[in-house]
Amino acid sequence: QKEVEQNSGPLSVPEGAIASLNCTYSDRGSQSFFWYRQYSGKSPELIMFIYSNGDKEDGRFTAQLNKASQYVSLLIRDSQPSDSATYLCAVNNNNDMRFGAGTRLTVKP
Amino acid sequence: EPEVTQTPSHQVTQMGQEVILRCVPISNHLYFYWYRQILGQKVEFLVSFYNNEISEKSEIFDDQFSVERPDGSNFTLKIRSTKLEDSAMYFCASRTYFSVGADTQYFGPGTRLTVL
Lengths: 109, 116
Known about the structure:
A: 58% strand; globular; B: 4-stranded antiparallel sheet; 0% helix
């Protein structure tokens, strides 16, 4: 069974703070890792992807991957109220991508 | 910017009826996917499709489901005999080609299926 686990939240941070989102996965053959953002009633929107161990930064977002620990995280710096959404971790092996249940983030002004 | 489109945005059907959900992937993309999301639950992988055949499918994708690329642009999901539990948002996604580092999937806006 290919499982992707996330804390469901809600995670609440004040505006300007760092939000930290975590994800673990069970399939050791997983090759690529994604963070999507989903607003209520909308489709997933890609935030970042990462393939190699370590950190990857893109603007206010940093993804971290540790394949040995089967762990992926997303840091959002200088959080804004518009960042309030559900963040989905997705893990891909060949052509089979599995999602976590998502972490609901609320950024309070 | 090119995007994945889906029709209809909302489909209401009676239990036992057949439905076809339609998707137009991004034009130069080669891999196509269907996912579903039951209200309040996680996005679930159904099936991936490449070169006119199924590449991977999940345990959810049983005999009542089928996929087809009837022409050069459309990608369809057929549910043969709908059940109440098929009520969900169905997302189509596509990507360019398969290699680690270039396998980002882009999602369509979804079709909300309601089975009565």
